[in-house]
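The freezer alarm interrupted the setup, so I double-checked each line after restarting. Inputs confirmed:
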Amino acid sequence: MRSIGTRFLVPFGVLAVLFSIFILYRAYSASQQHARELISQQAALALEFNLAIRDYTASTIRPTMERLLGKDGFIPETMSTSLVSRNIFEEVRQKFPHYIIRFASDDPRNPVNKANPDELRMIEFFRKNRHLNWYTSEIQLDGKRYLAHFVPKWMTKECLHCHGDPKDAPAELVKRYGPTASFHRELGDVVGLDTVAVPVEAVQGALASEMWRQSLTLAAGLALLFGSIIVIFRYVVTQRLTTMARHFNEIAAHPESPGMTPVKVGGSDEIGVLAVAFNTLLEHLRAAHASLEQRVSHRTAELGLANEELRREIADRQLAEERLRESEADLKRAQGVAHVGSWRLDVCRNILVWSDETYRIFGMERGVPLTYESFLDVVHPEDRARVDCAWQAAVKGEPYDIEHRALAGGLVKWVHERAEIEFDAQGHVSVQIGTVQDITDRKRAEQELERRVRETSILNTLSQQMGSTLSPAEVTRAALEGIVAAIAPDLALLFLKEGDDLILGGFRSSRPEFRHETTPTHRVGQCLCGMAVAERRPLYVRNIDRDPRCTWEECRKAGLISFAAVPLRSGEKVLGVLGVAAGGEERDFSEQAPFLETLSNEIAVGLQNSILFEEAMKHGLELGRANEGLRAEIAERERIEAEMDRLRNLLKNIVDSMPSVLIGVDAEGRVTNWNREAQAVTGLAPQDAQGKLLDAILPELTDQMEKVRRAIRQRTVEKAEKVRRSQGGTTRFVDVMVYPLVANCVEGAVIRVDDVTERVRIEEMMIQSEKMLSVGGLAAGMAHEINNPLGAILQAAQNIQRRTSTGLPRNADVARECGTTLESLHAYLEKREVLTMIEGIRESGLRASRIVANMLQFSRTSHSQKVPANLSETINRAVELAQNDYDLKKKYDFRRIEIVRDFAPDLPAVPCSQTEIEQVVLNLLKNSAQAMAGVKEGAPPRITVRTLREGSMARIEVDDNGPGMTEEVQRRIFEPFFTTKDVGAGTGLGLSVSYMIVTNNHKGEVTVESAPGKGARFIVRLPLEAPVS
Amino acid sequence: MNAPTPRILVLDDEEAVRTGLVLFLEDDEFEVLSASSAEEALALLEERPVDVAIVDIRLPGMDGDAFIQEAHRTGRAANFLIHTGSTNYSLPPVLRALGISRKQVFRKPVIDMAIMSEAIRNLVGRCERPRSAGGRDEASHDRR
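Predicted 3D structure, all chains:
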């Protein structure tokens, strides 16, 4: 089917295209024509310009030039028409390179103007057609199309001047171009051709492209127009028509459906009108259709409904019947399976209806008419009241849910009943509907379970007790209690097997008349208990009266009937037997055999354990005791070892850190121990000393070896104090202690050697000071008593000397009064040496007073002021004093002694009492002088006085090269009154006083170093800082 | 010599010492009095004031220190020299306060009495004997 669109649009499109092509062609042709004319005009214009230039050259410039140059002159640039025009047009062509403007000749003077074949053809053409002044044609040049204007050049009369006979031509022309070229032309002859060619291509190209652009624009416009038309057409016509058509088709396809909807096409044009008309039509149609449909469906529905109802009714009835039957059967089956019966009690009429199962449960014949009372009859008499009570409550609305016993054909059964009550419209109880469930089995199982649980719990308890109890008595007690708790017998007893005897371990009895203590011992193999042990299996007897094995009358007398004897086995061993008895009714204990036997096993295990435990305990205790002892011993030993190690270390450290030399020796005197101090003192390492004989290593101890031996022999501590030993030239003092080693039968001794040199020295000094102080004290006490008589003596002596002297005038007078002269008296005294004696008295008195004064020094702490003093000056003064000392001069020849001074220049001032130090130095000088006085031979006597600084002390040395002194003398040198001189030579106090001054007053030191024959050196040390007093 | 002879009192309980000093000082042209106890000396001074008193310290009865104070108080002795055998004698402040210096203390035994004599002369030169109303004083003046 061709659509309206196609049928309308195709012819319309074709017509539009054709019309457009025609219009375009027309426009193109007109443009073409117009362009050609324009080009032609251009060419003509150019040509006219060319010709005009030539004419102007030929008619104006050339004659002028000829006039100027003469007949034979010729300048082509001005006179040759061809050249001028060519030059001009060459210029023009600079601007319009596509233009061709040239003059061509078949016989030109300039070869540039030589005609090409086309031009020659044109020349020929013009020669033949003499009437043509110009010619236009299209030519091909170098493949391009040009529109060319050709104008022929005829020979005129003026032309002949140069192109006729060469003789007439200007000489210059001939000379330049030669006599042949372009001469001998005839008048009127076509000699050349002016050509102006304009390229057509450019114009035509522009035209064509313009043409194309126009065509494209037109085509686009056409396409747009066409598209718009299509769209509009489709929207306005096609689409609406299609919608309508589709709608009609749909309606046609489903004539019966209610979907005959009106077509939705808008607009008020013809199509719109058509749609409206259709819709109106449709409306009518639908209304008719609807009414018809309604009637038909109504009827159909009615019929269907009736039919359906009939059918359903039939099915329902069938189903109900079926279900009812099934349900009844199910109920019956279910009741049988569940042991649940049901019942229905019409309360008002007292009619009770039971289900088959209910009849069965209660053990009654089916169909027996029933009432509530007949139900109560089957209830167990003991529960009857309770059931009735519950039922009465239920009628009042309480829930009826009760478990009770029933007597069903002589059997006691347990049932569980539940019921619900229905009320009538007035709210009265009308019907009671209930179930009855046979729970006998459950009840029995529950009771059994309860019993088992109880037994198990008793067993557990017992087992725990067995595990925690380890004494047989406890086990027995626990076992009996367990049995009583579990099975409540009238008698429970337990025998323990010992050899062939069964000893009663314990019993529990509920009957006071039963006293078993009377025969506590049974024999294996006798009576039931003994037999159970012998046979190693439990015996259960329902009635002992009827059993000949029971040989023990007491049980029977006590009224016991049933009996069980269970042996207590542990592995292969039977440990005893458990007896259980009950009186009153017969009782089958074998029913509880598992419990009793398990219990017996537990008891046996407990007993066995307790027996083992007792043994183990006994062993363990012994072992433990032994272990404990061992452990304690080991610990003690370890402790002791550690302690010993520690002690050994400690001891070694102590021994090593002792400032004493400690040497261990064995009985032979060989070194076994050698401490650090020993090494330090001797320079001998312990490993070198080890094993050597002590007196070999320390020869100075040779004298002490006897002491060592004695100490070992007699086990006494031996001691030698202040043993002298020389070390490096100096004398040292040591204390030697020998301690015997008495412990552990070790023969040997420890020798302790202490250097006590310092102590000895200090001791000596102390003694010295002590001595002096005591002397001082004594002196102070008696000085007054001595000084008075001394004063008297000295004064008397002085008076005697004066009164016997000649110097006193009164002496002469008195002599005269006495009848003598002083002179004779004097002579007499002189002769009788009285004067000398008096002088002796005086001197002795003086000495005594000096001694007293010196002695007083020892007691007096100096009050003298200590001021910083230059030691050198002090010493110099002392030397001066010594040199002026009368005694020294006279007795000891002091001037003979060379005094050498050697003073440290940097010694600071020393705080001291200058006079006292002066005295000290003087005393030392005197001492040295006195010591050297006796020596006549040897080196000349010399005393060196030296000062130097020694740490915080100033040191004064007084050296002499005299005879020196022994150590004995050195030790006593500072003692008061100690002197080596003859009695009377000195006071014996000089050095003591010096000592006192230095040590006591100045807190310094005085020492002496000397050896016989080696001179002596006295050393005074004074502190550089004044001691705080 | 135009100056009057200085009068000296020697107070010492030891007769030998006292006599020794008296003799020496008399030889040195001094007028010398002597006493063996302080009390005696004070009595003497009542009669005759002295230029210098040489005083022993340890005395029976009143001791030397007390005597000096008393003598000074009464003004019967112009100057004092102490002559003691005590080794540990030190000048008490009360005597120092009287202007007595350590130079005036001599310790026994005095080896050369000339030194003492010199000291006396120095003291007398410094301070004259106090004036006395006694006739003997005048007489001594007359004697010169």
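Quick read of the result. The two ends of chain A are 156 Å apart (CA to CA).
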